[in-house]
Every structure is written in C-alpha cells, then in structure tokens.
Amino acid sequence: MAATKAISATHASAPLTLPNERQLVAELNAMAQKEQAIALAVQALKTGAFRHPDGRTDELGLVRITMHQAGLLAHLAARCPKQLSVEVGFGMGTSAAVMIGARRLAGNPFVHVIYDPYGLGDGRGEIVQDYLQQHFPKGFRRVVKRSEIGLAQLIDAHGPATAGLIFIDGGHQFENVMVDFVLADQLCCEGGHIVFDDASFPAIESVINYIMTNRPDYAVAQSELRNCAVLRKRGPDERQWDAFNPFEVPNRHDWEAKPGEPQEATSARQLERSR
To answer: Do residues 187 and 155 make contact, with C-beta atoms less than 8 angstroms apart?
Structure first.
C-alpha cells in the first residue's frame, strides 16, 4: 500500500496523518466484500437507493455522504478505541451502516448510539433503520431526542471519555454545532476522533476555527476530503479558566459554501434539508 498522506494539524506535536481519498475508498471496498451492511451502503451511495435484502428500497435523494467520507468513517470506526461510538443525525442511515459494519469487522464489542429526533419525513430512512435494528440488535441504538439532551444524558450515565468516535451531522446552526462539540468533547477519549460533516459551510467552519484557535488539546485536520473536518483528542484540556483567543468567522451567510463548492450542489442540499 502506498504511504499515507500527512495532513497538517493545528497545535499538534506531529501531523495528523490520514489515508488519502484513493486509499480510503479502497479500504471501504475491501470491507464491503466482508460485511453486508457496508456492501449495502456502498451500493446505495453508487446507485442512489438503499436496497434491503427483503427487496424494499429507500431512495437517498440528496441526503448522502460521498464515497470518500464513507471511507473515512469506516477507517476511523474500525480503529475506534472504545466500545461506544456516537452519531448526531441519522439522515438516510448510510453513515451509520458503514460505521456499524466497520465496528463489527473489527471484532470487538460495540454500541453505536445515534441521536435524531426528527427524521426526514415521508418514512425516508426507515428501511435502513429496520435493517440495522434487525442485523445489529445489540450494537445499534437510535434515540429520538435532541442531541444536546441525549449527549448530556449519555455523559451522565456512562461518564466522560467513554466514546472513541463521534460523527456530528445534526443541526447546522452555529449554536447547535458548538453545543454538539462541547458535549462530544466531554465524551471523547484521548486518542478518539470527532468528525464534522458540512465543514465547508459558515456555521460549521466557524466552530472548527474556534477549535483550531482555542483548543490545543486537539489536532485538527481539514483533509483533502472536501466538506469534512477531523479532530483527534491529544490529551486533557489544560487551559486557564479564562483562556480565549479570537477566531475567524467566515464572511458568508446561511448555506453559502466556501469558494469552489458547486453552487448548484449547495442549493440542492439547502432545499433537501429544509423539507
């Protein structure tokens, strides 16, 4: 295998190194040969529809991750250092299928908890959820609660530093994303990862900029995977009680992506998420 690509990380003593896109997709496809959940998710991402083994289908529409993002989540999930992994937002469930499948392939006991109180409407995503409930009765849990409530309760029940991987793709207003990070930070163990989807958009980008400027206990990689940011927890938060550094806030509004993001894709995502 070719050498992995080192991605520069803020406040890190060494670069946060992740495989490149080609390697991630190759690893994902290899996993799909061994795990049905991943194979079904990969097929759904390629064809636009999740096909349950019983024949039912669920159209993804515009609510989907890329193959590269799926590869990243599978890569991190396979190496999750704790029994618990967490997801904020269920959507069409392809990210959950990939992460849970990778966790089963790793061969260690696991529980994957997802917080999403709303769903997409019209029953979308329910076929994927049925599959995950049937095939992972002990490992899959979807909790119909807002993440700021559910994550706090999870910390209260299990204690801090008990999750090894947290994927944040829930509410996209700045305060929602920041609260998700604050609680994910409490849950995340040393050496664990927090992943943000939609990191090209202003509210999420602002949270990432805050972390890069104010949290030296995290290595932050905004990799070649567009629209995705990865954090690795390096150690305890040892800042002074009054520590604060100004951080950059993008001069863009609402769902306006970074330059280079296709505008038609931006508009389509905005329409889909507003339904």
So the answer is: yes
- In angstroms and rounded to an integer, the radius of gyration of the C-alpha atoms of the chain is 18
pTM of the model: 0.90
> What is the C-alpha to C-alpha distance for residues 214 and 225, in angstroms, rounded to an integer?
23
Show me where the domains of the chain are located. 15-234+248-273
A 10 A CB-CB count for 159 gives 10
| Cβ–Cβ under 8 Å, residues 96 and 176 | no
How many residues in the chain?
A: 275
User: What are the angstrom distances between the C-alpha of 135 and each of 101, 109, 153, 193?
Assistant: 10, 15, 26, 26
Phi, psi dihedrals of residue 213, rounded to the nearest 5° = -90, -25
**Cβ neighbour number for residue 155 with a 10 Å cutoff:** 17
- Among the CATH numbers 3.40.50.620, 3.40.50.150, 3.40.50.1820, 3.40.30.10, which is that of 15-234+248-273? 3.40.50.150
Question: What's the pLDDT tens digit per position in 43-101?
Answer: 999 999 999 999 999 999 988 899 999 999 999 999 999 999 999 999 999 999 999 99
What is the distance between the alpha carbons of residues 139 and 76, in angstroms, rounded to a whole number?
17
